[in-house]
Amino acid sequence: MQISERLASIPEVAQAAKGEETLWLNPNKKPFAALEGTFPITRAQMDEAEQRMKRFAPYLEKVFPETRAAGGIIESPLREIPRMGQWLEETYGVKGPWLLKMDCDLPIAGSIKARGGIYEVLQHAEQLAFEQGLLRPEDNYAILAEERFREFFSHYTIQVGSTGNLGLSIGIMSAKLGFRVIVHMSADAKQWKKDLLREKGVMVVEYPQDYGKAVEEGRRRSMEDSMSYFVDDENSESLFLGYTIAGRRLREQMEEQHIAVDEEHPLFVYLPCGIGGAPGGVAFGLKHEFGDAVHCFFAEPTEACCMLLGMATGLHDGICVQDVGLSGKTQADGLAVGRPSAFVGRMVEPLISGCASVKDDILFRWMKQLLDREGVFIEPSSCAAFAAAPLQDRLREYIRREGLEGKKITHLAWATGGKLVPQEERERYIAFAK
Ligand SMILES: *Cc1c(COP(=O)(O)O)cnc(C)c1O
Fold first, then answer.
1. Closest Cα partner for 104 from 381, 358, 388?
2. C or N terminus of the chain, fewer CB within 10 Å?
3. 63 CA distance to ligand 1 middle (Å)
4. Looking at residue 2, what is its pLDDT?
5. Is 112-237 in the same CATH topology as 3-44+51-109+238-433?
6. Could you tell me the fold of the domain covering 3-44+51-109+238-433?
7. Residues 354-400: pLDDT tens digits?
């Protein structure tokens, strides 16, 4: 009753419920200055998170050679995509410039999960080692690669529920430290992700159900074991903090590349969204760096637009896509989530500009365009970052509403995954896009 009333009263929600593409504009967005300091997550915690990653840099550099060039810092390139931008302008009438934030190439896990997932595992490992007096903050963390630490961590278990990429990041990082790891995979998870994890000694449990079920089972099994820690994607502040670090890093990259972000040069950022932790954390970090000059949009598959439904109805995790007759099924496996996070939507709602939704077949088309024009491969989930491009009417309404007409807008597509996708899988995707 409550749900159907809310559905009918919000046109974008009614459209979304029909499986149509739409861009919901958030009527509850507030100026950043009015919000600063009111959040349960503070700047001090974000600083602490960044410091923690710095402490671990000597260890990461040692055990993951691919992080050596950046001194053990897990970060991705930012680049311009002028040829893709030209195609988007010709096809949809959206004026560039367009930038691509390449979390598709993040070291270790090859997706945005290398931010939150790895952060939470490292935080947990550090806490265990501190408690046992094995490690102090001032130590050189490269010692964590020693066998005695691997032996110590082998008594502990880490578990997580995943549609694939979170499992990869938690699994790879935990196994490297020496933990026992169990990844609970939903039906959407791709076979190669399970194979890769098993190769690394991770135990993979498969479920015929969706993501919510995999999380529920993982949480239950972890609770039964006092030596087990559960990475809870539906509730984790730690994951969220790991994602926020991206804000500061992006500001530094924009400065290095002399790309202005201010009142006259607004930055529109499009973030593919599943349960909301990754895009929510990144958006939270970005707002703390750029304030009102940055405009963050979430992007989801039409069949799994849980954050759009949650925020637009104000019901948050009180609504799931099946409630409105959507399937929750999508080729964008990283975004195949039917119910949004219990805390992210509520917390970031006043910061977010809107939520866009996109149909699966277009994701493949954009994937191929980006590959052909820029030579960059990203997985279909990542391609949701272009979801607002065909929704120009709605975007123009937003620009009017915010008084941004005539300003020089830069668009940034946040590419969230791709590097680890095997060649045969890439070819299958590309063939599908034709
Ligand atoms: C997980 C994931 C996202 C979204 O992150 P959530 O925290 O689930 O919202 C986006 N893209 C890719 C490739 C992902 O794996």
1. 381
2. N
3. 25
4. 64
5. yes
6. Rossmann fold (3.40.50)
7. 999 999 999 999 999 999 999 999 999 999 999 999 999 999 999 99
